[in-house]
Amino acid sequence: MKSWLNISADSDFSIANIPFGVFKSDRLAARVGCAIGDQVIDLKVLHVLGYLENLPFELSDLESPSLNAIIARGKGPCRELRLRVQKLLRSDVPDLQRKEHHVAQALIPQAEVTMCMPVEIGDYTDFYSSEQHARNVGMMFRDPDNALLPNWKHMPVAYHGRASSVVVSGTPVRRPSGQLKPDPEKPPVFGKSRLLDFELEMGFITHPGKPLGEAITTAQAEEFIFGLVLFNDWSARDIQKWEYVPLGPFLGKNFASSVSPWVVTLDALDDLRVAGPVQEPAVLPYLEYEGHGHYNVGLEVDIVTPDGVATTISRSNFRHMYWNMKQQLAHHTVNGCNIRGGDLLASGTISGETPESYGSMLELSWRGTKEVKLADGSLRKFIADGDTVVMRGHGMTAAGDRIGFGSVSGTVTCD
Length: 415
Ligand code: MN
Fold this sequence. Notes:
SH3 type barrels, Fumarylacetoacetate hydrolase, domain 2, 2 domains, 17% helix, 27% strand, globular, binds manganese (II) ion
């Protein structure tokens, strides 16, 4: 499949991708668009010009400042919408490409727009589904010989996070304050977190699910998944360590989480499927699944210093998951818990087998016992004020098409 647009081979947004996002500009109010190469295609304009005829979308869905309205239409309509946009951009389809005045209205350089928070997130859940990450944390904080807790291989463990503080890429992240306990022998103190960290994750956005009380099976799960984003689950390790017993993460996590602005559909990732690990012991029947539910998406994390020096400090892959999204969604709803359109379910930190592939500073610095060296010679155990954390991810299809997520970045500020 080729496009009549000139798309660079290293662009995340090939014609095989067509992710959805919300953008605005000096002259345009926030609305829905798709990324193609270094351009945005304005779906409101396509609708007005008649290119989205016979699709079940109203103009109001596309001039909305979030993707929730199109997500609410369900998997089938969203699939048709993406395929229509893709078709209009194909070199063998003359409809749009021959109408220069329409092209001029519908396509806008990404450099001229501001990306907005793509989804109004109702509920946010964070899983803990990478085995190597769970092992690393267990080894550091509990017992190296029993790193995984007894439940870990029987269920995709998760906690309910905070949706209100999920922000779009580019939003500054203020270093949080809270209770710290630097000296285990002394009472806690109040102050700025000293152990600020990132977590390399992917998150998926749901379509409206079933009514309260009804479970979604692993076989049905993909019908309820709209698409995925890169996700940085910022974490204050010192606040987290003191607060988390017995009810789990709270203020060490909920000050900010950053998402990439383009939502890559599950359909676009279809060619990147790979087999997951053999799950031993065998899972309970409701967690069994058919087909491949893991995805080969290479992931990278950079720290960019205040002087603009970038160092890639982690290279991981979304395939390093023990539990996949089908299992996560089946587990989340097995008790009858309902999901809604625009919910965000995140993977948990994605760490591979090798130290270079660890997805947090906690692991890269092994709880602050090692220093991570940056390209300018400076050293980090955790994230410093003024640092920008940038995450990227992409995969390649068998046909050689690049399916990427762009990036999610956030700069740490302090006052
Ligand atoms: Mn997390």
